[in-house]
Amino acid sequence: MARYLLGRLFGLLLVFVIVSMLAFTMMHAVPGGPFDEEKAPLPPAARANLLRKYGLDRPLYEQYGLYMWNVLQGDFGISFQSPTETVIELIARTWPVSMALGGITILIALSVGTTLGLIAAIKQNTWIDYTVTFIATLGITVPNFVVAIWLLLLFAVRLQWLPTGGWGDWRTAILPVLAFALGPTALVARYTRSSMVEVIRADYIRTARAKGLGERVVIMRHALKNALIPLITILGPQIPNLITGTIFIEVIFRIPGLGKFFVTSVLLRDYPMIMATMLLVAMTWGIVYLLSDLLYTMVDPRIRI
Amino acid sequence: MMLYSNPLQARALAEHGGLYNSDPATSVSSGPFILKEWRKGDRLIYEANPKYRGTNKPYIQKIINIGASPATMFASYQAGEADFVNGAYLSPADNEIIANDPQLKLESHPHQGDFRTDYLFFDTKNPPFDDLKVRQAFSHVVDRDGLIQSIIKPSQGIPAYSFLMPGFPAANSDGLKEIQRYDPTVAKQLLAEAGYPEGQGFPKVTLWLRNEPPVRQAVAQAIAASIKQNLGIEVEVSNKEFKTFTDALNAKPTQIQFGMVSYGFDFLDPYNMMSVWLSGGRHNWENAEFDAMVKEAAAFTGATDERVAMFQDAERLLVEDVPAVFIYHRTVSDVYKPYLKGTELEPDRNGFAAIHWPGYTNGSMVVGSMYISQDVANANRTIP
Amino acid sequence: MAAHVEQSALAAQQRVTHRRGGLWRDAARRFFRNRLASVAFVVLALLIFAAIFADVIAPFPYDYAVLSEATQFPSREHLLGTDAVGRDLLSRLIYGARISLLVGFSVQLIALVIGISLGLLAGSLGGWVDYIVMRGVEVFTAIPTVLFALFLVSVLRGIGAAGGPSNEVVTLILAIGLVAWVDICRLTRAQLLSLREKDFVLAAHAVGASRLRIALHHMLPNTLTPIIIAFTLGVATAIFTEAGLSFLGLGINDPLPSWGKMVAESTAYLRVYWHLGLFPTLVLAITMLSFSFVGDGLRDALDPQLNV
Question: Which of A21, A114, B35, C99 has the fewest CB atoms within 10 Å, i.e. the most exposed one?
Answer without folding.
Answer: A21
